[in-house]
């Protein structure tokens, strides 16, 4: 089944790590459909209508100028680069929107409307989400809206291999990520997946049960069972254990569910969560997060 990915694009051409990650990860770029997405940032001087936050006529004129200049150039450069890398032109769409409620909100809205299989962020996107973490209220509100997988690419080509470290536990978000990994790797023999469970001193999870469930979901989604391995680590700090394993195995991506802790606890939203800890410290590989 064809996969459809949303890739955010910025004016910083050297920061298009998401484009370069996609080229590195997929053997045949024509197996995926890409939408390159540019958000015209809202300048402080733009005047908005207080009734619906719609921009005034003067603001629209300024937006159009940006859209027709830097935004258009950034998208054209990105599209040309990915097509020259092997993606068919008819598989690449470009889209520009004006920012009304902030860049991350516009990305979230597009991901919902477009029903993409994943939203792939480059270095600029990482900084947006980093800022989100520092604002606890926005963090809580926005992460509540993001119910689609997010790929965060800090470096252009990560890992010499193309294997995935799938962090699993007994949460629903973890199983949704397992299903996502299986779907994205459907019919692809170049990737292996290592299911990784970190057993902390107070962890009562049965790893074999979790592994069996995650493996079944991946196989059902289309991945070959012989490409799936498993490993358990004993550690007090799951984030450190995952980072160490990722570096030692030279994985191209670490995949994890967003939640950590029991449902309804603050751990699901704030800095104690494993996904948030990884987002703050990860550097050597891409991070895949699913709610």
UniProtKB/TrEMBL annotation:
Q: Which domain of life is it from?
A: Bacteria
- What is the name listed in the Swiss-Prot or TrEMBL entry for this protein? Universal stress protein
CDD domains of this UniProt entry?
A: USP-like (cd00293)
SUPFAM superfamilies associated with the record:
Adenine nucleotide alpha hydrolases-like
Which Gene3D superfamilies does its entry note?
3.40.50.12370
Q: Which organism is it from?
A: Oceanidesulfovibrio marinus
């Amino acid at each position: 089944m064809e996969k459809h990915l949303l890739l955010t694009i910025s004016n910083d051409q050297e920061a298009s790590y998401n484009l370069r990650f996609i080229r590195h990860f997929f053997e045949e770029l024509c197996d995926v459909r890409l939408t390159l997405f540019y958000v015209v940032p809202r300048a402080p001087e733009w005047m908005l209508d207080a009734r619906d936050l719609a921009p005034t006529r003067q603001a629209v004129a300024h937006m159009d100028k940006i859209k027709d200049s830097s935004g258009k150039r950034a998208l054209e450069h990105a599209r040309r680069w990915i097509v020259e890398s092997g993606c068919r032109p008819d598989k690449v769409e470009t889209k520009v929107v004006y920012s009304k409620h902030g860049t991350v909100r516009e990305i979230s809205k597009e991901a919902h409307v477009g029903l993409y299989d994943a939203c792939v962020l480059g270095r600029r996107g990482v900084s947006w989400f980093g800022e989100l973490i520092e604002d606890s209220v926005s963090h809580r509100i926005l992460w509540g809206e993001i119910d689609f997988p997010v790929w965060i690419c800090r470096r252009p080509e990560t890992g010499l291999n193309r294997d995935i470290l799938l962090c699993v536990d007994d949460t629903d978000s973890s199983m949704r990520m397992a299903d996502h990994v299986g779907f994205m790797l459907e019919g692809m023999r170049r990737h292996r997946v290592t299911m990784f469970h970190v057993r902390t001193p107070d962890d009562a999870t049965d790893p074999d049960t979790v592994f069996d469930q995650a493996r079944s979901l991946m196989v059902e989604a289309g991945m070959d069972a012989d490409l799936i391995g498993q490993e358990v680590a004993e550690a007090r700090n799951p984030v450190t254990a995952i980072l160490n394993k990722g570096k030692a195995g030279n994985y191209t991506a670490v995949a994890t569910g967003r939640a950590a802790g029991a449902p309804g606890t603050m751990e699901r939203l704030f800095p104690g969560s494993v996904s948030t800890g990884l987002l703050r410290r990860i550097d050597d590989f891409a991070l895949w997060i699913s709610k």
